[in-house]
Amino acid sequence: MRKTYRPASATVVVAGSGLLAVFLLGDVFIRGGVAQGLRITPWVALVVWAIYATLFAPSVAVDERAIVIANPLRVTRAPWPAVTDVRLRWQIVVDTTDGRSISAFGGPSPGRPARPLRGARRSEVDEAARTPASVREAEEIRETWRANVDAPGETSVTTSWNRRVLIPFAVIAAGIALTLILG
């Protein structure tokens, strides 16, 4: 079963920026007309794409076979037998058998520590509930790695371009070029 980790705020910010973009473009199409709306649309789409590419597209996905780290421009897939360590620094860092350290831009990252409760008794249950989500998620990733590190299979780490980010950018860039040409 595949599980994907990304900051919860990323979904909220991308959805909010998308709704704001639709509202603003609707206003441009209503007040300025279709021609003005078509000239503005690629630029608004570029801003929404930039928010998507920097906040939502970066993620860490794990399954029984590998960890997949999707950064804004590149995607790296490391099978569990090729992983030597999974650690949480400013973000998840995966060390591989070929000596590479792969940092994930998305996924669990440590936040600020929780504030202590005033006048409340601390128990183990309270402490477990107050453990930051990033620490729990990083531990889930480590547990998946430990459970599958000895599994037979491929051991080569592969890196490719992040098509989910670059293809929409190419379409937006073509739209911008078209609006500049047609002016």
Write a concise keyword list for the protein shown above:
50% helix; 5 helices; single chain; 183 residues; elongated; 20% strand
What strand order characterises the main sheet?
1-2-3-4-8
Distance between the termini: 49 Å
Counted beta strands = 8
The average pLDDT score comes to: 87
For the sheet with most strands, the description reads:
5 strands, antiparallel
Radius of gyration computed on alpha carbons = 21 Å
Please count the helical segments. Answer: 5
Percent helix: 40-55%
Residue share in β-strands = 15-25%
Structural class: alpha+beta
User: What general form does the structure show?
Assistant: elongated
**Low-pLDDT regions:** none
Q: What's the SSE pattern?
A: EHHEEEEEEHHEH
Task: Briefly characterize the structure.
By secondary structure, the protein is of the alpha+beta class. Helix content is 50%, strand content 20%. It is built from five helices and eight strands.
Question: What is the topological layout?
Answer:
Blueprint lengths: L2 E3 L2 H25 L1 H23 L2 E4 L3 E5 L3 E6 L3 E6 L3 E5 L4 E3 L20 H7 L2 H16 L9 E4 L1 H20 L1
Antiparallel strand pairs: 1-2, 2-3, 3-4, 4-8, 5-6, 6-7
Helix pairs in contact: 1-2, 2-5
Describe the structure.
The chain starts with a strand and ends with a helix. The protein is built from five helices and eight strands, in the order E-H-H-E-E-E-E-E-E-H-H-E-H. The mean pLDDT is 87. A five-stranded antiparallel β-sheet has the order 1-2-3-4-8, covered by helices on one side. A three-stranded antiparallel β-sheet has the order 5-6-7, with helices on one face. Helix 1 (8-32) packs antiparallel against helix 2. By secondary structure, the chain is an alpha+beta fold. Strand 3 and strand 4 (74-79) form a beta hairpin. It has helices spanning 8-32, 34-56, 124-130, 133-148, 163-182; strands spanning 3-5, 59-62, 66-70, 74-79, 83-88, 92-96, 101-103, 158-161. It is elongated, with a radius of gyration of 21 Å.
